[in-house]
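Sample pair:
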Amino acid sequence: MTDSASSVDLVLDELGEGDNEFVYALDPKALVLEHEFFSFSSPVNVEVGVRRSINSFSLRGDVKWTLTGECYRCLEKMQELQQATFELLLQRRQASEEELASAEEDGFIEIVDPGTRRIDLADYVREAIVLEMPLRIPSQASAGECPHCGQGEGLVERDAQEQNDPRWDALKKIEFS
């Protein structure tokens, strides 16, 4: 099932016993995703697998999105594909205050009232994205070369010059036993 929406509503009563698969394309603005240095240049794609066993729902979500921003090395505009996952065990049952507090502490378990018919997974998707956001793009490690433009010899030379600062020569002469 594929939906293009601003929320990830999961209707619990419509899920069959066993495995269920859903695909969503979400608007980043609807997820309230904003960043100082990046923009979200395409919909956020979410694939959710739900395994239902009576009133217990085990969810695993794969989230993919594209960031657009300036490369931190060459300052050219670039895009980078990002991905994250989230997992959740949702139980629809009566629970004591202690059980609810314990589930809230765990973070991967949510206990809801037996009358709950639907749940919005947008907060889980947003949290997965926020936790995996890079500090800068490109986030891929490279050996002195910019993965975007392929240049980087100047960067390596500058790093080598900074490492050969003569002010540190006196410290190099110290011998430790």
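DSSP finds four helices and nine strands in the chain.
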